Amino acid sequence: MADFILITGDQAIFKPNFGQAIIIVRPGNLIGTGKDKINGQLVCVDGDEKKVTVPGCAYTTPQYSIPGVGMLFIESLAANQKAQKTKSKGKPVLLKGGEFKAKFTVLVPAQQPSTPNPIPDSTLQYSGTGTFISMNIKVKGT
Question: Rounded to 5 degrees, what are φ and ψ at 80?
Fold first, then answer.
């Protein structure tokens, strides 16, 4: 099914719930490396999603109320977010599609208040989801 092709400047919007972790999310920006342009911006192709990183996101969990900090990534795309037929530079273009799988990597663990020392979160990664917002509302790919 045809869907809008993602371009440079489009955003990855992460949902705040990553299992037990609640993340204070910010959007990630896509940078296209395809050869074709839409609205004067390069199209995004397979692999461009791997370069989306959002550092410095605070998080807490029900058990660890002192915030920690980590980084958001796109782990993998949904099947409908990678074109089957439409290509640029020989690679499938990326489509708006449904929800991608996301990963949150803990850099500074959240902590549980405790005396004499707070107890750090031992979970180093959390999984979540997200969607894309595209500025392209004209050109679709399949």
Answer: -85, 10
Residue 142 lies in a domain: no
Residue 33 gets the label, from left (phi > 0), alpha (psi -120 to 50) or beta, of alpha
Instruction: Look at residue 52 and tell me if it is in a domain.
Output: yes
Domain that holds residue 38: 3-136
* C-alpha dist (Å) from residue 25 to 16, 59, 90, 105: 6, 9, 33, 13
Quickly count: other Cβ atoms within 10 Å of residue 121's Cβ: 22
Type of residue numbered 21 = A
Q: What is the pLDDT along the chain (142 residues), one digit of tens a residue?
A: 799 999 999 999 999 999 999 999 999 999 999 999 999 999 999 999 999 999 999 999 999 999 999 999 999 999 999 999 999 999 999 999 999 999 999 999 999 999 999 999 999 999 999 999 999 999 999 9
Count of domains in the chain? 1
